[in-house]
Structures are given as structure tokens and as C-alpha cells.
Specification:
The structure is a homodimer of 253-residue chains.
Chain A: H1 16-29, H2 42-49, H3 53-65, E1 69-72, E2 78-81, H4 86-103, H5 108-129, H6 132-146, H7 152-168, H8 173-190, H9 197-215, H10 219-252
Antiparallel strand pairs in A: 1-2
Helix pairs in contact in A: 1-3, 2-3, 4-8, 5-7, 5-8, 5-10, 6-7, 6-9, 7-8, 9-10
Chain A binds a DNA duplex (30 and 30 nucleotides) through helix 3.
Chain lengths: 253, 253
DNA sequence: TCCCCATAAATGTCAGACAATTAAATCGTG
DNA sequence: CACGATTTAATTGTCTGACATTTATGGGGA
């Protein structure tokens, strides 16, 4: 039996803990293990895979970091297949998105266009399924945004909440999840932008029109207004950028 | 000094490895550590945090599982802040999406509507930025899909490739990343659907019209056709479902 | 019957050691 | 002096064994 040994090409010769984690991950994603199933204890796993307990623990920690399992101490404790909740999935997505944008030098325009493209995609569904609660939430955020002397951070937060309410109007949690990740991941880039008062007024005006259009279930108009909002935001970013460039060049000379 | 102990509410009293991982994660996401920065060695970290090396290692494995760091052995080795590549980010997103859909009993209709909503969102950008390469790729997939006797898996794979080319036409990697995750996460649900020949013909016909519309840069038409495709897919899923229900009830009696 | 406590099972943590890998320093030789 | 082989040191990967901590369970006593 010559092929009993590990195939040197396929398994990629990674760490033992990575291999074990992959094996368990596959079992979960393929459905062999379903939510709330209990994995064997660390001692049993170390025996099964022929490795020490620390190695097994490293594998389990890898899975825990991906929210694939959760662990409980004590008798009748152990590692259990975790039913990923939406808030957790949101956190995972936000982390990945933030990392992807910030460490890959994705420019603001690309991220911004992607975000508005996704949001425009769910506008028709929002127009169809929106509830009075969503409209009320959006109007509340508009009131907040209109207050003078609001910090840039607070304005951004309110902006995010407004768009979140708009997306939630689609009543599609999967859609909300994607959009939340897209928006959250942009937050670091977004915080580099400063909104002048005139720009804020323009944005708030568009928000009001969007809310009205949503109330009227006018999907085409929402689409158009979101496009306008995207344009405004991009212009804003350019202005901030040129301002910084100017300042930097001035300081350098 | 009574408050020297861990604050019982704020730090949430998690595992030491989770706390350390969180601290390093924050340092990376906040920008204190940038790509390719080298972390202190495991021995130094264990000394810094006052824990043992296995505990530090568990923390590092958590971060590695999120592709936040990568490790290298040997002298001048260690843990380095990892620049997340798009393929890796794609894998992360796909894992989370698959988990979210399969372990949370998200019904096919919800996932399908979300996917097409996102795809319709990038249709205008694709119409604007599409290249001849994208059109060629889509036409190649259409040819593949039209072959009779194709297995359901192969048909699905070609379908995915077709839509991927459509999305890539937007020339926005962030957008492509989101869509790829949405589609990949649906794969397990998608594989439960069987496409009859008549349905396949209908889908391929729509694909042809979509490609033509993309060539003509007619965003509105693409939007309309994607809507139709969504409707067809949903009808398909319902048919498969009722078929299964029928079979199951028959077997049960 | 009800409460308290011992017990057992499991994860969490530690200490020390050795193996494997890799880059750099060292040495030897032409 | 130059260049290649060898040694060395630093670092991660893995193992062993032990102890601490948490928690469900069951038994004993009031």
C-alpha cells in the first residue's frame, strides 16, 4: 500500500494545525457537521489525528476565529458547531472589508462606486417592501444630520444609519448583510473626508428627496438620486484630497 | 490598589488568547501596524503579555485564520502583517456567506433576490466599462451552456462564470469581490436545484440577450433581463421544491 | 424534599524541551 | 582577496506532562 502516505502535492504540506482545521472546516461546510453538533474533546481529537493537544487547540482556535465553532468549559463542555448570527457575520465581513480596502490601497472612488452600485441594486426591493418604520428612521436621521455644529464623525454615523435604514427596507437580511459590510469597510476611508457645511446641506437635501421617493415607492427616482449622491460624495472626496495635496506640497516647500 | 484587577465588565473576561488576538487585531486595523510589519517573536510576545508561548501561539493562529498575519519559519522569520489579496478575501467572504446561508436556514428565494439585486446594481457600471474580453468570455460560456447532456454541476459552473464575467465588466474589484461572495455562498443552495432542458434553454436565451445588451451598453435592458432571469430562477427553485415535497410525501405515506 | 458539597469531565494555562527551518556569519581553501 | 561550504543562531512547529478553572451531575445530610 504505497499511497498510504500523505500526497505531497495535494495537501500543500501546511502546518498540522492548519490541516486539521481544514478537515473540520470541510466537515462543517459540507454539512457533515450541523449547527450545535459537539466535536470530540481535545484529547479525543489529538488521539484521532495523532497530534498533541496544543496542536489540536491551535486548530480549534483557528476555527473559533472564523466563528465556525464556539467552546464551552466544564463538564458537558467542548467545541460546538456554531450557528453564525447575522451580527457576527456582519463583524466578519466588516473586518475583511476594512482590511481589503486599507491594506490594498483601494482608492476611495472605487470603494465609493461599489458601495453605491450595491445600494442602487437594492433600491427597487426597498421601494417595494419598505415599512413606515424605515421611513421614520430615515426622517429621524435627517433631523439629526441637519443640526448645525455636528462633528464630522457624528455626521458620518448618521449618514450610515440613514443608508442602513434604506437598505433594511428591502426586508432581505442577506442584502442588509452585504451592504453593511460594504459601508462599514469604507468607514476608515470615509473618516478622511471632511464635509463642509454647504456640502452637508446638499447631502441632506438628497436624503430628503430619497426618503420621499421611497415613500412614493418610486424606484427609478431613488436610483437617480443615489447616483447624484454618489457624484456628490466623489466630488467631496476629490476636494478633500486636493486640499491635503495642497497642504502637503506647501509644507514640503 | 483595588482596581488593578481586570475590569469585570469592559474586557468581557474572554480567553487570554482571544484578548491578545484582539489587541493585535486592533493594532492592525487601526493602522498602528501596516502591511509587512513584523510582529515581535512569540517569546517576546509571551513576555510582553505575561503569558506562556502556547497561549501566544493560539492568539497568532486566530489572526492567521483571518488572514491578518502570515508566519515564516527560520531565522529572520516570524509573524508579519499580511496584505490581504483579493483571492484570499474572496475565500473569506465565501466561507462566511456559505455558513450564514446554510446554518441559518436562509431560504433560496431570499438569497436569490439578494444576489440579483446586487448584480443589477453593477449592471450600469458594467455597461459603461465592459471590454471586448468580457463579452468574449460571456459568449464562450453561453456556448458551453448550450451543449446538450451537460451535467447540472457543469451548467451551474458555467452560469457562475458567465455572471462573474458580467460583474468583472464593471472593472471594480471591490464590486467583483462582493458579488463573488454572494454567488459562491449560494452554491450549496444552487446545487439543490435541477434544471430541466426547457428551463436551460430559457436561461441561455436570456444570457444571449444580456450579452447583446451589454455590447450595446444598454443598462436599462440589462436590468430588465436580469430581473427576468431572477424570476425564472425563482420559478425553477419552486418547481424543484414542490417536486421534492411531492416525493417526500409519497415516500412518507 | 431541598440544599450543599464532592466528583468528574472538559477546556484554559503553564513550563520546558526538542525538531525543523532558514538566514547570516564564519571558516577554509584556491 | 574571493568564493563556496559549513557552522551558528534565531524562530516557528510540535510534543509531553502537569496544574488551574469551570461546570454539570450525583450523593449525602438536615
Amino acid at each position: 500500500m504505497p499511497d498510504n502516505s500523505k500526497s505531497q502535492q495535494k495537501t500543500a504540506e501546511k502546518d498540522l494545525s492548519a490541516q486539521i482545521a481544514q478537515a473540520i472546516r470541510d466537515a462543517i461546510l459540507s454539512g457533515d457537521l450541523v449547527a450545535d453538533d459537539r466535536l470530540p474533546s481535545e484529547a479525543e481529537l489529538s488521539d484521532t489525528y495523532g497530534v498533541s493537544r496544543p496542536t489540536v487547540r491551535e486548530a480549534l482556535k483557528r476555527l473559533a476565529a472564523q466563528s465556525l465553532i464556539r467552546t464551552k468549559r466544564g463538564a458537558s463542555g467542548g467545541a460546538f458547531v456554531h450557528r453564525l448570527s447575522y451580527p457576527e457575520a456582519y463583524g466578519q465581513l466588516a473586518t475583511t472589508a476594512t482590511l481589503l480596502l486599507s491594506l490594498n490601497e483601494v482608492d476611495f472612488a472605487t470603494a465609493c462606486r461599489a458601495r453605491f452600485a450595491l445600494e442602487r441594486g437594492c433600491a427597487p426591493l426597498s421601494a417595494q417592501n419598505r415599512d413606515v418604520d424605515h421611513l421614520a428612521a430615515m426622517r429621524a436621521e435627517i433631523t439629526r444630520q441637519s443640526q448645525p455644529g455636528l462633528s464630522d464623525e457624528a455626521f458620518c454615523a448618521s449618514d450610515v444609519a440613514f443608508h442602513r435604514a434604506l437598505v433594511d427596507g428591502a426586508s432581505n437580511p442577506v442584502l442588509s448583510w452585504h451592504l453593511a459590510g460594504a459601508v462599514e469597510g469604507m468607514q476608515p476611508l470615509m473618516n478622511m473626508i471632511t464635509f463642509r457645511n454647504r456640502d452637508r446641506a446638499e447631502i441632506v437635501a438628497l436624503h430628503i428627496r430619497i426618503t420621499d421617493a421611497l415613500e412614493a415607492r418610486d424606484a427609478a427616482l431613488i436610483d437617480q438620486l443615489l447616483n447624484a449622491l454618489c457624484t456628490v460624495t466623489l466630488r467631496q472626496a476629490e476636494a478633500t484630497e486636493s486640499l491635503h495635496a495642497q497642504k502637503n506640497s506647501g509644507a514640503r516647500i
